[in-house]
Amino acid sequence: MNDVPPLDKSLNPFEVSLGNIMQTAHEAIVMVDAGQTIVALNPAAQRLFGRTQDQTLGLPLESLIPPEHRTDHAALARRFIDSIDIELQMAPRRLVHALHANGERFPVEVAVSRVEMADAGGSRRYFAALIQDLSPVRALQAEVEALKQRLKAVFELAPVALWIADGDRVVFANRAASRLLGVEAGEALAGRSIYELLQEPFHEALRQGVRQVLGDLGSQAMVPGQLQRADGSPCEVEIALAALPDHGRTTVQMVVSDVTRRQAQAKELEKSRQALRQLSGNVLEAREEERGRIARELHDELGQRLTALKMDLSHIDRSASDQRVCTMLTMIDETMASVRRIASDLRPLMLDDLGLNAAIEWLASDASRRLGIEVQVQLGCSDLPTEERLVIAIYRMVQEALTNVGRHARASRARIELQRQDDHLVLTVTDDGVGLSASALQREGSYGLMGMRERAHMLGGEFHIGNVDGGGSQVSVRLPLPPPQTTPPPKAASPSP
């Protein structure tokens, strides 16, 4: 095999027969004869190995192979050369190591094929090696692997529970998932059904979420659920779902957040709000009762005494000091007017005597007189409920709304509407003033507005305040009507014996 005639570098048959094929090829091509002597290499191969053609032609092929790999290469090459069925002895492409002129080792992929070439003696067999440098590929693979390891570390050390499901099976779960379920870190969650981990009432919601993210890649879904820990205790969770492409398949990534404490805190907060609202309602009711009591005492006690005093003064002989008596009578009249006004502010008697509509009409008339503006009233229901809490709440909200118009609106006109809509009462108070600024709409510090909102919420209603088109502001309150009182039918008289 080694009795090959010396290579004549001055007349390279490959340059004649293969021409531009080798010279212009981007891949490195090395030609060897049956004795594994290099007989040709193209410019790409010269660049790859850092050797010129003159430095390389005539050298054994093993000079391009690191010493530690030459024995394996020689055995493999011998089997390949002697083989009849080449494809059975050597794969079309093979990963090997190559040696640069500077001594650097680098990975390459080699595909070898036989070449029969005619010469003066007939034909001679050569072997062409197509060589691809895998260094950039290996470097990229190393970077990808390093990135995968970093992502895996982030995934594994994330404080929130994460697992990845393929179909309905968990294929990966991090430590936080084990902690969430109360299992040992070494206890495998992989292979378990995601529905096995979730309580049955939440299975359908999870299925819908999985279908959504798989059907619309890039979308996300949020699913509530409940897990059962290893100790049997329930765990309220929220599961964020997203599709995750993985090596030609699409898995589902699940971020599982423990919301047990948050939900417990939310329930406690709502309980506290309900308690505060109940307390506020009790305070308001107690205040209204106290106002009513004081108003009645002012009207009944002080009012009657002032009236009696005025009658007594009227009978006094005015001849001695007529002017002083007149002054006293005037003061009594003014005091009685003040008593009536104070009593009305505390608890308008007409609210009890004439009803809510008349009380609202009086508020509008009083506001028009005091503020110097036109106040229109439209009362669209005559069969108003008589429940005291509801009547007082509507009266006080109209009173406060008109007070706000007088203080802040700089309006010339206001309008009060009270309408019945199905099983609700709707109150609106609108003005044509300057309206409310954005900061004023967001500010919650007005005690008047807070009181109106609280009264509405205590009655299960809604409260809104905002600006209207064309200028001005509007207070809107929607309150549910109490169910109608049903009187039981009279009992049938018992038959006389």
Automatic annotation (TrEMBL):
Residues 480-497 have a biased composition (Pro residues). Residues 474-497 are annotated as: Disordered. It catalyses: ATP + protein L-histidine = ADP + protein N-phospho-L-histidine. Residues 259-289 form a coiled coil. Its EC number is 2.7.13.3. It comes from the Bacteria. This is histidine kinase. PANTHER family: NITRATE/NITRITE SENSOR PROTEIN NARX-RELATED (PTHR24421), NITRATE_NITRITE SENSOR PROTEIN NARQ (PTHR24421:SF10). The keyword Phosphoprotein applies. It comes from Sphaerotilus hippei. Residues 297-483 form the Histidine kinase domain. Residues 89-146 form the PAC domain.
